[in-house]
Amino acid sequence: MCYDDNARPPLPPVDGGSAHGEDIVLTAADGTRFAAYSAYPDKPLGAQVIIYPDVRGLHQFYKELALRFAETGIQAVAIDYFGRTAGLTARDDSFEYMPHVQQLHLETFFSDVKAAQEYLHSSQGGNAPTFAVGFCLGGTLSMLSGTQDLGFTGLVGFYAGMSRNMDGQGTLLDRAGEIKYPVLGLFGGSDQGIPNDQVQALDQKLADTGIEHEIISYPGAPHSFFDRRSTEFAEASTDAWNRVLRFITAHSNRQA
Question: Domain range spanning residue 163?
Answer without folding.
Answer: 19-255
